[in-house]
Amino acid sequence: MSTTNRILSVDIFRGITVAAMILVNNPGSWGHVYAPFLHAEWHGLTPTDLIFPFFLFIVGMSITLAYTKKKAAGVDGTVYKKIVSRTIKLLVLGLILAGFTLSFPFFKDFSTLRLPGVLQRIGVVFFIASILFLNVNWKVLIAIFISILIGYWYVMTQIPINGQPPLLDKVSNLATVIDTQVLTRAHMWKIYDPEGLLSTIPAVATSIFGMLFGKILISQNRSSQEKLVFFIITGIIALVSGYVFSIIFPLNKALWTSSFVLVTGGWACLVYALIYFITDVLKQTKWGTPAIIFGSNAITVFFLSGVIGRLFGMIKVADNTSIHGFLYGHLSSIITNLKLSSLIYAILVIAFYYLVALVLYKKKIFIKV
């Protein structure tokens, strides 16, 4: 689909988010990273913690944009087949990426294959959110959203762990307990998993937030200025509510707490409001062209960055140094401030994948996952 038939502000938001995902995943050295480009150690929030929920928020917006007319016309089996197909593709791609973390040759030992992951969570959230969107009305969606936030708070804070009140640390929380029992530690990230089973439920709430937001975006009864005001007010309300909620249920990305859903959703509203103001109110779109190009093959570029990044860390060149180590070693010998050289390396990685996205865009190749 050409960009003229799309809402450019959404494409720009998606492209910026994907670029940010690649940026924080590809530093020159994990030992030398500026604090804002790292996740919070446990409770808390950094700019990096906003990126994944932003993407799931955009998934929700995109569901509304893609399926509203289909829902009004009556949904047939073809739509559900496409949803299932896309979900399976995302799950498979996620597991392929996980396989690249194993020793060469890849997938040699399935006993240590991590089962959850970013792409897997995107796939599961997309599936559940799409099915909900196609089968319930907006009032029910709002009720489900609120129920998830309250219900998740209750089960995470009120259900005892081994007969003791949950501490909400990396081990003493229901999400980790369930992941440990179902997935086992061998198939988790570490002693906990930031994309685990139970925490995927509030991640669905993030996407529902995006769906509700998308409904206002496509409304024919509001002017651009009215929509902008609504976006800003919604963002502020969500932020205030989330930070108040965090008093009893701390902000935590790994657990995807209810307060985390509200605060990150609030920031998504405000960031998108800024993009919408520039693009749809001021009618300035050229600035967002690189982001549109990046977002036109978002999953493809993200997947490639994961595969190539892993290969660069595995393939050895001179003096048994990996390709990554060789490249970053030369860069850090020129720029001796290691945190700065690590950041510049990540920026150069983004530039490389932008060129990949640009080639695909110019050839009108849009790979739909």
Describe the structure.
With 369 residues, the protein is mainly alpha-helical. It has helices at 8-25, 51-73, 77-99, 118-135, 138-158, 174-182, 200-217, 224-245, 258-281, 289-295, 298-314, 323-334, 338-362. It contains 13 helices and no strands. Helix 1 crosses helix 10 (289-295) and helix 10 crosses helix 13. The longest helix has 25 residues, at 338-362. The radius of gyration is 21 Å and the shape is globular.
Characteristics:
single chain; about 375 residues; mainly alpha
Q: Portion of residues in helices? A: 55-70%
User: Roughly what is the average pLDDT, rounded to an integer?
Assistant: 92
Order of helices and strands: HHHHHHHHHHHHH
The rough form would be described as: globular
Tell me briefly what this model is.
It is built from 13 helices and no strands. With 369 residues, the chain is mostly helical. Helix 2 packs across helix 7, helix 5 packs antiparallel against helix 7 and helix 10 crosses helix 13.
Topology:
Layout: H1 8-25, H2 51-73, H3 77-99, H4 118-135, H5 138-158, H6 174-182, H7 200-217, H8 224-245, H9 258-281, H10 289-295, H11 298-314, H12 323-334, H13 338-362
